[in-house]
Write a structure and sequence with these properties.
heterodimer, A: 115 residues, mainly beta, six-stranded mixed sheet, four-stranded antiparallel sheet, 54% strand, B: 113 residues, 0% helix
């Protein structure tokens, strides 16, 4: 069965600092990987996705993520964080199970941005 | 394009009452998902429809929960009777199916007193 681990429950950074959120997955084949962001009172919004090809994926809002098969990781990065980036971030791995495609989400990492 | 639309946004009711949550997926999407989000358990998949047919309902907590999708543009999640432990934010998401990403609604915050 597929699974996702986000080891950091909370991350605190200063505005303007760089950011890296960790994501480790478990899946038997080549996975589909996603990062979503959830602002308070809203649903999850897709930041970026990896299906195949270039292992460095660019997303919206200046985010990027790198797929590392050898480490089973898909970490999210941003070179300079803005106060508006404070939110909950979810990593997800997708794949087929019993003929159905159902993604699995991590528990999320809460990003706190200090001025 | 309108996104996934959920109603109501907030629901407060007393235990024992029937609760019905509604979802309108994005037009053209053939997969629909219902999730429940709590601090304790995170984001849980309750049920998944493909082409209006329930494919996987293994996440539905118990018989008090039921979900329907009578047509491609509407789905409901019903709790009867409701209990305080059902208090959570319920999300509906839709996708084009397969490996395509999900699009989430803004959720229904449910409080059972």
């Amino acid at each position: 069965a597929q699974s996702v681990t986000q080891p950091d429950i909370h991350i605190t950074v200063s505005e303007g600092a760089s950011l890296e959120l960790r994501c480790n997955y478990s899946y038997g084949a080549t996975p589909y990987l996603f990062w979503y962001v959830q602002s308070p009172g809203q649903g999850l919004q897709l930041l970026l996705k990896y299906f195949s090809g270039d292992t460095l994926v660019q997303g919206i809002k200046g985010f990027e993520a790198e797929f590392k098969r050898s480490q089973s990781s898909f970490n999210l990065r941003k070179p300079s964080v803005h106060w508006s980036d404070a939110a909950e971030y979810f990593c997800a791995v997708g794949g087929t199970s019993g003929g159905s495609y159902i993604p699995t989400f991590g528990r999320g990492t809460s990003l706190i941005v200090h001025p | 394009d309108a996104g996934v639309i959920q109603s109501p946004r907030h629901e407060v009711t007393e235990m024992g009452q029937e609760v019905t949550l509604r979802c309108k997926p994005i037009s053209g999407h053939n997969s629909l998902f219902w999730y429940r989000q709590t601090m304790m358990r995170g984001l849980e998949l309750l049920i998944y429809f493909n082409n209006n047919v329930p494919i996987d309902d293994s996440g539905m907590p118990e018989d008090r929960f039921s979900a329907k999708m009578p047509n491609a543009s509407f789905s409901t999640l019903k709790i009867q009777p409701s209990e305080p432990r059902d208090s959570a934010v319920y999300f509906c998401a839709s996708s084009l199916g397969g490996d395509q990403p999900q699009h989430f609604g803004d959720g229904t915050r449910l409080s059972i007193l």
